Amino acid sequence: MKLIYAILGLVALYIYVSIMSLLFAGIDRKLVARMQRRIGPPILQPFYDFLKLVSKETIIPNTANFMFRAAPLLMLATTIALLAYTPLGFAPIFATKGDIIVFIYLLTLADFFLVVGVMSSGSPYGRIGASREVAMLVSREPAMMLGVFTVMWGISKLGVQKPFSLSSLYEHNIWELGPMAWVAGAILIYVFMAWLASEIEAGFFNIPEAEQEIAEGTLVEYSGRYLAIIKLAESMKEFIAASLVVAVLFPWQLDMPGIQGYIANLLIHTLKVFIVLFVAKTIFRTVTGRLKISQAVNLLWTRVFAASVIGALILAMGVSL
Amino acid sequence: MTKKVEYWVKIPFGPIHPGLEEPEKFILTLDGERIVSVDVKLGYNLRGIQWIAMRRNYVQIMYLAERICGICSFSHNHTYVRAVEEMAGIEVPERAEYIRVIIGELERIHSHLLNLGVVGHDIGYDTVLHLTWLAREKVMDVLEAITGNRVNYSMMTIGGVRRDIEEKHKRLLLEMIKYYREVLPQIEDVFLHDSTIEARLRDSAIIPRKLAIEMGAVGPTGRGSGVKDDARWSERLGVYPDLGIKPVMPEDVTGEKARGDIYDRMAVRIGELWQSLELIEHALDQMPEGKIKTFPKDNVLVAKLKILGDGEGIGRYEAPRGELVHYVKGKKGRDGPVRWKMREPTFPNIFAIAKGLEGNQLADVVVGIASIDPCLSCTDRVAVIKDGKKFILTEKDLLRLSIKKTREINPDIKGDPTPAGVGCSRGVLL
What is the ipTM score, two decimals? Predict the structure, then answer.
């Protein structure tokens, strides 16, 4: 019985998150347009785009093999599975001890499927995009992992039910660990924002999908239904990645029992996700352009990862002292 | 010991590509992200302009010259008119020369602002694109108010200009200069100090001075590499020397020695925007009263040119993209020229940038090409590849094919399609 409720909850979350993430894409486009002194598309434009893409002809290149067709579906499936482990204002549906590892694996797996699909298309632009995507992937994740693991380790010292689970983030948070942790928290805000921007490939990090350089890189061969699925999965992934940042750094929630509590917390969480995405995506992509891949990798290792190490060390000292 | 294996891959870049404004093709040999070599393939933009021109008279060609390119329409017209004036020995009233300077510099402002926006767009910095193009609207409005058109101004005529700059236009121009003195510092700040722009444009797609001289790079591309050359200055063109023209070098803007990278080319463009504003201001001050054209009517002009048009004439002008050369050869008793040939600044520049891109990253290709502000609407032949063999289509073949196509579409067509003149001699020679 419990499992059935959990699955029903997952389906409800899937519908809610896909609508909200597409809605944010619309708000983002409108806000960017206003900042650039344009009028911009209507806020519901991503929905129209999605519906239009679904009804369009899907072209499969002659050189593509079956992974090209499987990859978008696998990517969406991974993203839906990821929702079961995402903190959305309350503990994840399938929260267990150490589920942060599953979360990180699934988050990278979604990108990995996109890379596999595009490598199977046989397009040279797609391959360049895929190689850029992989280079970004290996450079951006260590900083985030180090930050998340340190925060969770610090929280587990305060005594939680399931250590290293995303549900533990709602029992205690980083700001309860004392003044040293506040400093570390400030550094980690920078680390997580930079990671989020590179995860959703905005501004500086819009490299694998560079439109002007490699004609949308990873998406170059996809069209019609498959493109719609990828766009939906990517925009859900955006929401999920921002959810992690919110849960780690700004997890304050209402303490309300029952179904009303879940709904109220979900709405508060959505608002926080929108604010985080507004900073990491909308503002960031308005005030920056695209870097070269070598510069982006350099930035992620020498600045973001270094900051993550420093933040982790300060936090560890604050917890042990 | 294992031998290092290099995996080189050749990818086509264009003719249709989201980063390119016009159809042009580059074959890139890539080693990962590093560019090994760039091969330029031209010839996707043939309109047979020279061939069309052989069937027009001198005045009609002015309209044709204007339509070679939308952005530097005035430059083409100006250069062609200068070539004809040199050939026929026509004196131009001084006031007309000043008006030519004003329109030419207005065109330079709009062309440079356009290019600054395009470069911003090519590095994914769309805010720069939208804000520079917003600033560009002002100069377009002024051009429309003076000439009646946003592009293809039709201001030039052989022996003068068509329209005068009156008091109300003067007021508009001064107002525009005031507007740009407020807006340009912001654009300058973005292109000289913004971190993204500096990271992307500094030290990428370098054309060293030696290469620029070897390839004959002109305009902002050449000046960005440290070649002190400006047709307005070195040719002492028209009234430009009186206005205090001086080539804008990167060190005047950035304060550093020219490195020949994209950043320097953009810095030259920024400097030229300021210079153009000054030139317009001086021209408005110094402009004498008087008539604006030598021949009051076009039919008089056509008749005169039939007698005067003999020999050769070369017109040179610094178009926004670089030095533009038109060559006109006339024959007594003919309505139009027997030969009309233009050399566009993009032609040497594009080969310089192709060489300069070697060793850079793939990400630099689009922005590097945009930094020379390519304008590929040059007259060119078409290459057709059929069964692995390459044919070069000449103007005659194109004419034959278009007649065939027209017959196909509309079998009832009337009229004689055979060319009236001898056609362009190039078709015969090939």
Answer: 0.81
